[in-house]
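Why run this: before we spend reagent on co-expression, it is cheaper to look at a predicted model of the complex and decide which construct boundaries make sense. The entries below are exactly what would go into the expression plan.
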Amino acid sequence: MLESLLMKNGLLTAFAVVGLAMLLAQGLSRLSRGRLHGSAIAIALGLIGAALAGGNNGLADLPLLSGLGLMGGSMLRDLAIVATAQGVRLQEFARSGWIGALSLALGLVISFVSGVLVALAFGYRDAVSLTTLGAGAATYIVGPVTGAALGASSEIMALSIATGLVKAIAVMMATPFLAPFIGLNNPRAAMIFGGLMGTNSGVMAGLAATDPKLVPYGAMTATFYTGLGCLLGPSLFFMIIRSLCPT
Amino acid sequence: MPIFGTALLALCLLTGLGLGRLIGAALGLDADIGGVGLAMILLIVLGDGLKRRGLFLGPEESGVTYWGQMYVPIVVAMAASQNVRGAIGGGAVALFAGLLVVLLSFGLVGLLAKSKGNSEDPS
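The model came back. Tokens follow.
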């Protein structure tokens, strides 16, 4: 009886299950004394769950959790991502000046190029997979948005999310230790850091563990990174990769 | 009313995705070229314009804000519905690419942060 109730209301079941996962992730984040951002832990939990379930659609293949496919499908995902652009003030960005724009552009190009190079080294040769993996090295959002737009396979999408997640977690953990060596102790450096790293959760948790006063400056540039990545990933970057490997 | 905000959001996304498809078709591709990014630009521009005319206030804005705040949970659901087992064989790609980019970026932060114009730095 309960089972059919949960199955009939799949999307509601998914909201409840993801809510519980977020709660668990927040608890684990507290155990790490905030060093690991709750959102990164929650996404890792999602990937682990999908790996345990197996199948082409991860946990969404279980009839009870089929609502996850709707909740995490391209329609609601794109809606939520576009909604994050609300409240972005272009004037704010102008205040960070040319160094903000330069770090943003460099950050996207470096992520993308290093992602594509590693993918090439591992034997990926088709333009769609290469672009999706390169975009994943930008953030765990830019990767799947690019992959979905270009029609990448689910394995490539999962790899692309995982790449962005590795990046986010590495930034969270390494920032407090590396900050003294790279001069990350003033607002200007924090804006450069946000633009180059781009991964929002990584930048915020990393700066919070370094010096909470720097968080808004890093967030200011990082906010633009995902949006710009979603714009350039499936357009300019894909065109470049496609012209280089015409398969 | 919040639905006005959500409707604006949905229209921006639909327009962006439509434009992305058109650009794709113009290039001879069956793909959406930059649609989500275009939708974000549309939302920023339209939202800003409507706000200046006093047509996009708290209640309307909340219809967009809610979806923006749902973004991490939705990404969790997306991660949970991918073919992760099929991807595990290639997991090293994710590890190497993720770590390489972080390493390079930290180096660049150091270079740019110590570039000129940093004289106000107290340390």
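The longest helix of chain B spans residues 2-26. The mean pLDDT of chain B is 86. Bring this page to Monday's planning discussion.
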